Amino acid sequence: MPGRVTTPDVQRLGVRIAGTGVCLPPRRVSNHDIAQRVDTSDDWITKRTGIQTRYFADDATTVRDLARDALLAALEDAKVEASDLDLVILATITPEMACPSTAARVAAEVGATPAGAFDLAAACSGFVYGLNLASSLIESGRNRCVAVIGAETLSRHVNHDDRRTCILFGDAAGCAILRADEDAGPPSATASGGRGVLHQAMHSRGELWSALYMPRANKHIPPELDPAVTTEPGWNGQLDALQMHGQEVFKFAVIQTCDMIQEALDATGLKPDDLKLIIPHQSNQRIMATARDRFGLPKDKLYINIDRFGNTSAASVPLCLHECRTQGKITDGDLVLFLAIGGGMTWSTSLWRV
Does 124 qualify as catalytic in the annotation? Predict the structure, then answer.
């Protein structure tokens, strides 16, 4: 039954990604649609972000609905019963309620109880944080089967009159099922027999919080900003809406993305050519292009789908992962680097032999 492993095995276990699934709300929103409300254009948005379309949930669809359906799809793909799950980790900054966790209700709805379940708030880094936590629990023998979900409904937490933020974000959910793999054993940088994480890192710099945040009261607004002024970077005049100082986030993300890739390569002794694929959080196409140029990567080695989905925060990496698996872009034994940067500021990497 879930939670049955209480003492870790002495020998490390291999970890494999057994299945993936996604859920998108049906409403597809183009740049032209957004230009009907704010002073922008398809050309302006595409050139600055790479985004052409994104998906918005309707009033009847909750983040729980998206997360649940992504989990069900991943369970089917993995050929795993919900009752086999030991733990459900749901990365989100748009939970349905503060309590209970959205993860607990999702677990109940799919029949995973009494599996452990919790929400993880690390913004866009959340799914990669979850991958690292889940893989460590399985590798140690504490758990055998863990679902990691990234789900967001950020369309409800942007000011749709603010073109700095409303053009960027979309709604979605993605899920990965991680399972113990005793036959493969732990991974190696030089041999293809093992499965799991070769290198992981999770970081934060909380002093940079005001570059990207969601305030619930005027007292949460940085003191240097005037709530009466809606044109200042980092304030768009709407409480409980995502606030972003775009230039600060962009500069931080460009530098940190390159540093994250280099850190993972240095830690494992690998070279960029050794990686089959880099799957980054889909924040801005220019940020990803800068990292690709810095390491001399061909276009097909750094996966991009921001043009179709926008920035879906914690859901973006599992969306990419699912597409790469289903399209055959990654196969057993490949080296794949996941990375993400989010509000907090947070950032995380997870280098796998899948």
Answer: yes
